[in-house]
Amino acid sequence: MAKIRTRFAPSPTGYMHVGNLRTALYAYLIAKHENGDFILRIEDTDQERFVEGALDIIYNTLKVTGLKHDEGPDIGGPVGPYVQSERTNIYIEYAKQLIEKGEAYYCFCSKERMETLRAEAEANNTAAKYDKHCLSLSKEEIEEKLASGIPYVIRQNNPSTGTTSFEDDIYGTITVDNSELDDMILIKSDGFPTYNFANVVDDHLMGITHVVRGSEYLSSSPKYNRLYEAFGWDVPIYVHCPPIMKDTHHKLSKRNGDASFEDLMAKGYLKDAILNYIALLGWNPGGEKEIFTIDELVETFNYKNINKSPAIFDDVKLRWMNGEYIKKLPLEEFHKLALPYYKKVITKDLDFTKISPLLQTRVEVLNEIPDMVDFFEALPEHSAELYVHKKMKTNYKNSLDVLEKILPRFEALTPWTFENIEKICMDLVAELGVKNGIVLWPVRTAVSGKKSTPGGAYEIAEIIGKEETLRRIQVGIEKLKAAQ
Ligand code: GLU
Q: CA 32 to CA 29: how far, in whole Å?
């Protein structure tokens, strides 16, 4: 069997949509599963859509995610150039071959005429289709128009009777009536090819064996097949991936403010978790296992198990999966990732290495961290009601009693260590003959001002230090006195 070659062919739009990244991942996995080649091709023929910095985003995403390409604009390869805008001569040459064969033709119709056709179609409630007006131009007429510099496009010449079929490995055999096939534009008036033409020429010239892309291209694929046939080229294997939905009715789309890869990274998702999650968006590994490293994905991925039905992008599940990846990080690595988030809300010189072990098992997404640790910087606004806890059996009175008793003992405590703080609290528990919670709930509440915190009373008191602990306990005493 020939070596598998897949490609990722992004347009430089300025962001990496989750669906595009999934296409890249699937194309990578299909190739690597069989030791094949994964190629990067930049599809920049829509010059109006050019976005500054867009290429960096593409390169950077592939680098960060480890989806390493074997050929591409930055590293070269045997079938370059790998940027479509550098291949315009190639497309023109191939379009001319089609004209020779009668499979394509020049079209000189003006914008106004096209507009009229569109309006008529709309009035008749039919799909706008070019009426082959220019197909009947004689050779002389064409020469004359070309010579006088009238703008033109080159169109595919599709039959209007019969049917065209194509095979998709996911969606099966798809057959359309040729009457539905528009004579799509292959070369635009600016001399650039359309995606519709360039993808066929490039996939062929670059030896692509499996074309992996979103299902939005499914409806155009019969027209691509006709191009392959017109050239006499082998049709590649098509692997169209199901749409990714935000909910049952809406597609996930950057335009709707939905997350791109960069957004997810900025929120503090880990790239491995993102890759793992999106691998499952439309692909069923079979079995219970859901957490896959990239190597395991390469090993397990079988594109035949890609689903037809739309995949729902489930935030909750992604968060959960990210949390699982965070838990598995070595503590030092988690600490390194968490540190910038601490520094967003903590200016004090605290021992941050003591905070990380408290957080690592609780954080799902790194951007939750500031809200979880802000109380280390300053005691948040809170009401005395926070001291009242039914299960712990704490109320204003016994909380006040605990804080008043513990304050002088903390004042006298030295050195200020976790063990010593614990001892003071446990001694008081024993002395009062109460359950731990009667002492620990008010102390933790006083030092944190929060209902739930990473770490308990001892850890927090140790981290904020003696002076701040005493100050916060005094604040608690005042609050409880006022509430009695
Ligand atoms: N340039 C197209 C896009 O970004 C790629 C489609 C394809 O993979 O063929 O949507």
A: 5
Return the structure tokens found at 429: 């528990």
In angstroms and rounded to an integer, the radius of gyration of the C-alpha atoms of the chain is 32
442 within ligand 1 shell (Cβ under 6 A): no
Helices (H), 232-293: 261-267, 271-279
Q: Say which range, 53-62, 123-132, 230-239, 455-464, has the weakest mean pLDDT.
A: 123-132
- The count of other CB atoms within 10 Å of the CB of residue 257 is 8
CA atoms 354, 355, 356, 360: torsion sign: positive
Asked, as a colleague might, if the bond just before 357 is cis with ω within 30 of 0, I would say: no
Neighbours of 285 (CB within 10 A): 16
84 lines ligand 1 (CB under 6 A): no
DSSP designation for 67: -
Q: Which residues sit opposite 394 in a β-bridge?
A: 389
State the Cα–Cα distance between residues 72 and 260, nearest whole angstrom: 23
Confidence of residue 259 (pLDDT cuts 50, 70, 90): confident
Residues in the chain: 484
CATH superfamily, domain at 89-187:
Glutamyl-tRNA Synthetase; Domain 3 (3.90.800.10)
Q: Tokens 């967003």 identify what position?
A: 344
Q: Which helix (H) or strand (E) holds 124?
A: none
What pLDDT sits at residue 476? 98
The token pair that represents 254 in the structure block = 């950057």
The answer to whether domain 384-483 has CATH 1.10.10.350 is yes
The preferred substitution site among 199, 240, 260 for testing ligand 1, maximizing ligand atoms within 8 Å of CB, is 199
128 in Cβ contact with 117 (< 8 Å) = yes
Instruction: Report the chain's terminal Cα–Cα distance, integer Å.
Output: 83
7, 11, 204, 255, best to mutate for ligand 1 pocket (most atoms within 8 Å of CB): 11
- Strands 311-312 vs 210-214: parallel, antiparallel or unpaired: unpaired
Q: What is the spatial distance between Cα 37 and Cα 31, in angstroms, rounded to a whole number?
A: 6
Q: How confident is the model at residue 119 (pLDDT cuts 50, 70, 90)?
A: very high
The per-residue pLDDT of the chain, averaged, comes to: 95
Q: Which CATH superfamily is domain 1-69+242-327 in?
A: HUPs (3.40.50.620)
Residue type, 302: N
The residue type of 408 is P
Please work out whether the CB of residue 199 comes within 6 Å of at least one atom of ligand 1: yes
State pLDDT tens for residues 183-234.
Answer: 999 999 999 999 999 999 999 999 999 999 999 999 999 999 999 999 999 9
150, 187, 254, 311 from 153: Cα distances, Å: 10, 6, 31, 38
